[in-house]
Write a structure and sequence with these properties.
By secondary structure, this protein is an alpha/beta fold. It has nine helices and nine strands. A hairpin with an 8-residue loop joins strand 4 and strand 5. The protein starts with 36 loop residues before the first strand and ends in an 8-residue tail after the last helix. Bound molecules: zinc ion. The site of zinc ion has 4 residues, from helix 3 and helix 4.
C-alpha cells in the first residue's frame, strides 16, 4: 500500500479535486476510431492484488484521455501532471511504433493491435492484463515509492515497453493451429515464466537503445530508479548485480510439488530470467575477428521475434536456444557469414550454460531437495 507524504510525481493526488483536462467521453472523440494507442485515467483507484483488485478491476480501463498532437510534454506552461500524462502517451506510442515498424507484428486474426493503458492506478507495480471475455488486454501503471516520492511507472520507457512486450509474448507464443490446447502465451511459472520475463526484458532493452547505434553506449539496466533505494531493477549485462543468476549452474530449481504463487515469485520467474537475459547481452556485444559487432539491434530484434513464434506455453530455455538458432538459419540463409553468425549465437547461449539438452533430472531433484531443506531452516532464497 502507498502511505505517507509524497511529492507529486503524477496526478494521483489531484484526482479528487481537479478534473483532468484530457478526460473526454471516448464515444465523442472523432480521433478514437483511428487510434491504436489509448490511454485511460484510472483515477487513483486501488489495484493492489488483493480483494480490492477484484472490486476495482470492473472500473478498468478508466476515463479516456485525449492528447492533442500540437501539445508536447516539454511545453513550459504545462503542469507536472500534464507532463507525466503526455510522457506516458509518448512512451506507449513509441512502443507501438517499434512493434509495428521494426518487428512488423500483426495479430494472428488480422485485427488491428490496440495498445491500451490505464495510468494513475493505486498500485505499487506495473503490469499487463490478459484479455477476458468482457475486457481487452491492457497494461496498468501504478507508482513506485522512491525515498518518499511517488514515481509513475508509465513515465519510464523501458517499463512501459516491458509490459507491452508481455502482451506481444501472449499474442505470439503458442498461437497457431499446432497449439491444440488453445492456450496463449507462456505459462507464467518456473522456466517458461522466466522466458516470458526475459523476452519482455530483451525487447525492452532493444527498444530503449534502438536509436543508439553504438552498442558500447547502450544502457543495459531495466527500471532505473524503480528498484530498491532508487536503483535499477535488473541489468542484462550483469544480472548478478541485482541478485539474479547468470549461468545455469545457479538456476533456482523448485520442487515439482511446489505451487507457483506470488510469495515464491511464481517459481522464480523474475529470478532465473537473468540467465536468459545475459544471452541477449552476449549476442549483442559479440564481435568478429576484426573487432566489429556481428549483429545490429534490428537483426537481433527480428531473430528473437521469429524465435518467439516458434515457442510454446511450456517452452524452456533450451527451446529458446533451438528457436533462436532456427530463426537465424532462416534469416541468414543467403548470408556469406552465416556460419560465423550461427556460431556466435551458439556461444552466446553456451556461455550461460544453455544448450539444446535439458538439465539432468538428478540435478533438478538435488537442487529441489536443497531448496526445501534450506527453506525449512528459514532461509528465503536458497539458490545461489
Ligand atoms: Zn514482467
Amino acid at each position: 500500500m502507498i502511505q505517507g507524504n509524497f511529492i507529486q510525481a503524477d496526478c494521483i493526488h489531484r484526482l479528487s479535486s481537479l478534473m483532468c483536462p484530457h478526460e473526454i467521453e471516448e464515444k465523442n472523440d472523432a480521433e478514437a476510431e483511428n487510434l491504436t494507442v489509448k490511454i485511460y485515467n484510472f483515477g487513483g483507484r486501488d489495484l493492489e492484488e488483493t480483494d480490492d483488485f477484484s472490486k476495482n478491476k470492473k472500473f478498468l480501463p478508466g476515463k479516456y484521455l485525449s492528447f492533442k498532437p500540437d501539445i508536447t510534454y516539454l511545453d513550459a506552461n504545462l503542469s507536472g501532471c500534464d507532463k507525466q500524462c503526455l510522457k506516458a502517451h509518448t512512451n506507449v506510442t513509441n512502443v507501438a511504433q517499434f512493434i509495428n515498424d521494426v518487428l512488423q507484428h500483426t495479430s494472428s486474426n488480422g485485427e488491428e493491435v490496440i495498445y491500451i493503458s490505464s495510468i494513475n492506478c493505486k498500485l505499487n507495480n506495473a503490469g499487463w492484463l490478459k484479455p477476458l471475455s468482457d475486457r481487452p488486454a491492457q497494461t496498468i501503471f501504478g507508482q513506485c515509492n522512491v525515498n518518499g516520492q511517488l514515481r509513475s511507472y508509465a513515465v519510464a520507457q523501458d517499463m512501459v515497453a516491458h509490459e507491452f512486450f508481455h502482451g506481444l509474448n501472449y499474442q505470439t507464443v503458442g498461437f497457431d493451429s499446432l497449439e491444440r490446447s488453445g492456450r496463449h502465451g507462456f505459462d507464467y511459472r518456473g522456466e517458461s515464466g522466466s522466458l516470458d520475463e526475459s523476452y519482455a526484458d530483451i525487447f525492452a532493452i532493444l527498444f530503449s537503445n534502438y536509436n543508439e547505434l553504438n552498442i558500447q553506449q547502450w544502457i543495459w539496466e531495466i527500471g532505473q530508479g524503480f528498484g530498491e533505494e532508487g536503483r535499477p531493477i535488473r541489468d542484462l549485462s550483469n544480472p548478478s548485480k541485482y541478485n539474479q543468476p547468470e549461468h545455469m549452474d545457479h538456476y533456482c530449481y523448485y520442487s515439482p510439488l511446489e505451487r507457483a504463487e506470488k510469495h515464491n515469485d511464481w517459481l522464480g520467474v523474475h529470478y532465473n530470467s537473468g540467465i536468459h537475459n545475459k544471452v541477449a547481452y552476449n549476442l549483442l556485444t559479440c564481435k568478429n575477428a576484426s573487432g566489429e559487432y556481428i549483429f545490429d539491434a534490428r537483426t537481433v530484434a527480428i531473430i528473437f521475434y521469429l524465435a518467439l513464434k516458434d515457442l510454446r506455453p511450456t517452452s524452456l530455455f533450451k527451446d529458446s536456444y533451438i528457436a533462436v538458432q532456427q530463426a537465424a538459419k532462416t534469416l541468414f540463409r543467403n548470408d556469406p557469414h552465416m556460419r560465423e553468425k550461427l556460431k556466435a549465437i551458439s556461444e552466446a547461449f553456451k556461455k550461460v550454460g544453455i544448450d539444446d539438452s535439458s538439465p539432468g533430472i538428478l540435478k533438478r531433484i538435488r537442487y529441489a531437495i536443497l531448496r526445501a531443506w534450506s527453506r525449512s531452516r528459514g532461509h528465503s532464497r536458497t539458490c545461489e
